[in-house]
Automatic annotation (TrEMBL):
Belongs to the sulfatase family. The keyword Nucleotidyltransferase does not apply. Keywords: Calcium, Glycoprotein, Hydrolase, Metal-binding, Signal. Residues 23-342 form the Sulfatase N-terminal domain. SUPFAM superfamilies: Alkaline phosphatase-like. GO terms for molecular function: metal ion binding; sulfuric ester hydrolase activity. The lineage of its organism: Eukaryota, Haptista, Haptophyta, Prymnesiophyceae, Isochrysidales. This is Sulfatase N-terminal domain-containing protein. It comes from Emiliania huxleyi (strain CCMP1516). Residues 1-16 form the signal peptide. It comes from the Eukaryota.
Length: 410
């Protein structure tokens, strides 16, 4: 796929009138409920690092997601809603994934001098190697292909699902299975990898890090040290362990921001934090989430399932510590981020988008309207669309060692 894009590498103009963030970190928290970070629940759960970014960033108070994970992840990465991606529900362990005709945010940013890495959960298909992250624009992947697993053994339904892929198009002969990491908590592992990516990033390109944490999806597991501070404050043992899972994530985001600062990248980085769906409470397997004040749960289309927590931080924001009350959806991130980094989409560069470019609306706190993604005025006649009959030439890298029966990994 690199071949048909290479003529573009030097031809994407930057919007001269605006200097946006240079790097982008998209942090996706799995199954985060609306009421689960400290700034929402009056400090019941201690999240100093999230709180600091939130208090100096922009809160999206009317932000919507799909009621389960794969559809939202597809929307974030393509700018398109389930009606168009065809990903309407979480993907069980079947021969399906995000269509190879879709163009991902990583692929879009790579044409604009970015190097993209993915860490954590994928859950957009793996039955054939070309559906896996390093074939979708990411130069590395460190995480799991399916929807959930044990945080320590990295086993789901009897199969070890942990892949360490350190090159683009990393198929057989390249993908590693890090068995030696069994026993280590995934929030620590994924944080360490994110910190490594930031520390090793060659600053002659821009960094896009898709950091899709496993936390706080079921199963309910947290190292004791993170749960300890809640012994007195939270009586319910379910919510207490859950709070520990959140605290681990908070420490992780603290480490990530510290790594950015150490590289001198923090001021130049747009950090987005989003859930993938509302917290599972009354439907699907709960880990201890709360969606207060909204009714409903993950797997329902009430606000509790679809109105998510999201905020963004960048030091260059003209207004910080504000709330954007306009409607926003996970599909808006792709055009919004392209705009934020000072670029525009070419005609036909992606399949037609559902998402809107919110960047000017966010910067003006709603004074300006969201825009359909603004295309460059001049069609690029030499930009081919992705070949519709792209045929994988690789054999699947990942052969599940367990049976192919559908997983309950909603
Ligand atoms: C954050 O960094 C500290 C110091 O390196 C480390 O001990 C801790 O485990 C890290 N936290 C996470 C969640 O990875
Ligand atoms: C960073 O990338 C540039 C351009 O590709 C290259 O010239 C340079 O050697 C790289 N630096 C390091 C430290 O790898
Ligand atoms: C990529 O960005 C770096 C740093 O901003 C710059 O030096 C380099 O020329 C850029 N490369 C391209 C191909 O735009
Ligand atoms: C394949 C495809 O979507 N082609 C479209 C590219 O954009 C032009 C307009 O710029 C449309 O007319 C084509 O249909």
């Amino acid at each position: 796929m690199l071949h048909w894009l290479s003529p573009l590498l030097t031809t994407i103009p930057v919007r001269a009138e605006q200097t946006g963030p240079k790097h982008v970190i998209m942090t996706v928290i799995d199954d985060l409920g609306y009421d689960d970070l400290g700034f929402r629940n009056e400090g019941q759960i201690l999240t100093p690092h999230f709180n600091r970014l939130h208090s100096q960033g922009i809160d999206l108070s009317s932000y919507y997601v799909q009621p389960s994970c794969s559809p939202t992840r597809a929307a974030i990465l393509t700018g398109r809603k389930p009606l168009h991606t065809g990903i309407n529900f979480w993907l069980p362990n079947i021969a399906a994934g995000l269509s190879l005709n879709e163009v991902t945010l990583a692929q879009v940013l790579n044409r604009r001098n970015f190097t993209s890495h993915a860490v954590g959960k994928w859950h957009l298909g793996f039955h054939k190697t070309p559906y896996t992250p390093t074939f979708r624009g990411f130069s590395s992947f460190y995480g799991y292909y399916e929807g959930s697993e044990d945080y320590y053994t990295h086993v789901t339904n009897g199969g070890f699902d942990f892949h360490d892929e350190r090159a683009p198009f990393c198929g057989p002969g390249c993908t590693q299975r890090p068995w030696h990491l069994q026993g280590q908590y995934s929030t620590n592992l994924f944080t360490a990898r994110a910190v490594e990516i930031i520390s090793q990033h060659n600053l002659s390109s821009r960094l896009f890090l898709y950091l899709a944490y496993q936390g706080v999806h079921a199963p309910r597991q947290a190292p004791a040290a993170y749960v300890e501070p809640y012994k007195k404050g939270i009586a319910d043992p379910v919510r207490r362990t859950f709070a520990g899972m959140i605290s681990a994530l908070d420490e992780g985001i603290g480490n990530v921001t510290a790594a950015l600062a150490a590289r001198g990248m923090f001021a130049d980085t747009l950090i987005v934090v989003t859930t993938d769906n509302g917290g599972p409470t009354t439907e699907c397997s709960t880990t201890g989430q709360s969606n207060w004040p909204f009714r409903g749960s993950k797997c329902s289309i009430y606000e509790g399932g679809t109105r998510g927590t999201a905020f963004l931080h960048w030091q260059g924001l003209p207004r910080r510590g504000v709330t954007f009350t306009g409607l926003a959806h996970a599909a808006d991130w792709l055009p919004t981020i392209v705009s934020a980094v000072g670029s525009r989409l070419w005609p036909n560069e992606t399949l037609s988008l559902d998402g809107l470019d919110l960047w000017d609306a966010l910067l003006s706190n709603g004074a300006l309207e969201p825009q359909p993604h603004v295309q460059l005025p001049r069609p690029l006649s030499y930009l081919p669309t992705p070949p519709p009959t792209f045929r994988p030439t690789f054999r699947p890298a990942f052969r599940p060692t367990h049976s192919a029966r559908p997983l309950c990994t909603i």
